[in-house]
Amino acid sequence: xxxxxxxxxxxxxxxxxxxxxxxxxxxxxxxxxxxxxxxxxxxxxxxxxxxxxxxxxxxxxxxxxxxxxxxxxxxxxxxxxxxxxxxxxxxx
Length: 92
Description:
Layout: E1 5-12, E2 17-22, E3 25-30, E4 42-46, E5 49-54, H1 56-72, H2 75-82
Antiparallel strand pairs: 1-2, 1-4, 2-3, 4-5
């Protein structure tokens, strides 16, 4: 499953490379797929690319849903999800 994260464009540099803010975390992404994005625009980011310009309400609603998904995974569910993962074992 792929997930795009909402972020705000804070600076646009050369070659359509932009600094974005994701709730206080700054990253550099490409605006090649969203050349109409401007400083202050909200974008959805996936794999180092802004893939869509969205409005602030959509960005906020998306972030809320992402947080809800994270909260839904409690420790027991995480254990079930990782149960098939091989762990290092030592023989003694």
